[in-house]
Amino acid sequence: MPVVTRKPRIPPSPLPQRRGVDPVRVKLPADGAWATVRDHLVERLKAGPGVIDQMLRDGLVVGADGLPVAPDAPYVPSAFVWFHRELPDEVPVPYGIDVVYRDEHIVVADKPHFLATTPRGSHVTETALARLRRELDIPALGAAHRLDRLTAGLILFTVRPEERGAYQTLFGERRVRKEYEAVAAHDPGVGLPRTVRSHIVKERGVIAAYEVPGAEPNSESRVELAEHDGTLARYRLTPHTGRTHQLRVHMNALGLPILGDPVYPLVTGPVPPDDFRRPLQLLSRVLEFTDPLTGADHRFVSARELDAWTSYADWAGPSAGGQ
Q1: With contact defined as beta carbons under 8 Å apart, do 68 and 61 qualify?
Q2: Of the N and C termini of the chain, which has fewer Cβ atoms inside 10 Å?
């Protein structure tokens, strides 16, 4: 009879969220030569001279019992500690996030451009997840998938942590139909519709992804022309895989880079955090799936519009236009 091994249970956080952001949880490795918890945190977090020592003196690092970890506390393999990160000063994204559907299991939100999905890097409280946790008073809300910060449109969130895996599996097994819209130049020489396949590589720390000619394809997108005015066109994009920047890479490879893209075909200089002009003209328009828990068939459609298509002058002008 096979032996069933269970993952060790992670204790609940003894610290509350701050502004919709979870505390940082650190698991101490099962093996190591550290004499104290302090020694491990200094080596692991690389927070700068004296930072960890000051946090320990101030009682800001706690164990599973919620009590502060002493500066000289001995190292305990596989133990957990928690602390709150310093929240960065962030420029508020001046657009709202709309809830298009909510039940006891899921929340479907329609996010604006410039709002990250989950806390990461310099975007922490100004994220869709942190905002919705605060606005809906659902501290346990989690993201079932991610949408680029520069892309607007539909995102699926889960209400209960124990159900999140079921919805993430939908995306992992490609059982969610996703449809996007984009605005780019119109080129009658590009034969559409067509399916674009390529091998995309996105390296950690490198802004732009790239295609490897001749390599086995790991990405696939369907590109269709929805309408055009002779100069610009609105495209319907259906990704069948989910590589980072996939639609942006494939449109650029067709010679049709999406308007407002700061990475493809060329990486532009850094944009000030308060510059919300000319958003990327890419929108997650449709999410369609069968709910793995209720069996309900869902089809959600974003109510947002791409400014460059509805009013190019407003999009290209000094302001970002409506979001």
Answers
A1: yes
A2: N
Average per-residue pLDDT for the chain:
94
Please tell me the number of Cα atoms within 13 Å of 13 on its side-chain side.
16
Q: Look at residues 237, 241, 170 and name the one whose alpha carbon lies nearest to residue 200.
A: 241
Nearest to 119 by CA among 167, 86, 72: 86
Identify the active-site residue in 53, 148, 187, 291. Answer: 148
Nearest to 276 by CA among 238, 322, 319, 239: 319
Q: Which of 186, 172, 93, 97 is nearest to 135 (CA)?
A: 97
Q: Give the list of residues 6+ apart from residue 95 with CB closer than 8 angstroms, or none.
A: 112, 113, 114, 115, 276, 323
* Region of poorest pLDDT, from 39-43, 86-90, 109-113, 114-118: 86-90
**Is residue 185 pLDDT above 80, yes or no?**
yes
Distance between CA atoms of residues 207 and 230, nearest Å? 32
Decide if 261 is catalytic: no
